[in-house]
Design goal:
The chain is α+β, with helices and mostly antiparallel strands and about 160 residues long. The protein has 6 helices and 6 strands; from the N terminus they run H-H-H-H-H-H-E-E-E-E-E-E.
Length: about 160
């Protein structure tokens, strides 16, 4: 009787051991990492938390604008960094009045695409997950001009 049950188990073994293919763990990790990166995006509140003493020493009106992520004429580079974060580009502009520093903030023109697929055939089943950013380049969202260490012009292209 023991021989018969072993034969039956061997015959049934491959059918019961066969695993269905599912979206890979790697794809799940990619999606999770993308969502985690989006959650880690820098905000005025997070930047203020890293420099509480400097923020506390600023005038109340500047604090209000920084909390809202806004920039005003007369802001210092430190105040702009608290409000907007690190610039994407830093350049120099020469005018009749001298040299200015120009900070550029960009926004991505691409959208986030997400796809999920499942299929099967020939006794197997498979699936996949895809994430795409579309590959389109960034566009200028804001330029901030500094002269003499303070903001003298703000070009806002988000409004």
């Amino acid at each position: 009787m023991a021989k018969k049950s072993r034969r039956m188990a061997r015959a049934a073994g491959p059918a019961t051991v066969r695993r269905m293919k599912t979206p890979s763990l790697r794809a799940l990790c990619v999606v999770t990492a993308g969502l985690a990166l989006a959650a880690c995006q820098s905000t005025p509140a997070k930047r203020i938390a890293k420099s509480p003493d400097a923020f506390a020493a600023m005038p109340a009106e500047a604090q209000k604008k920084i909390r809202a992520g806004e920039v005003a004429i007369g802001f210092t580079p430190e105040q702009v960094r608290l409000a907007k974060g690190k610039p994407d580009l830093v350049g120099r502009r020469t005018t009749a009045n001298g040299e200015d520093e120009v900070w550029t903030y960009e926004r991505s023109k691409s959208g986030l695409g997400f796809g999920l697929g499942v299929g099967g055939g020939s006794g197997g089943m498979g699936g996949g997950v895809g994430v795409s950013t579309g590959g389109r380049g960034p566009e200028v969202a804001m330029r901030i001009v500094f002269s003499g260490g303070v903001v003298t012009a703000v070009e806002d292209y988000t409004k």
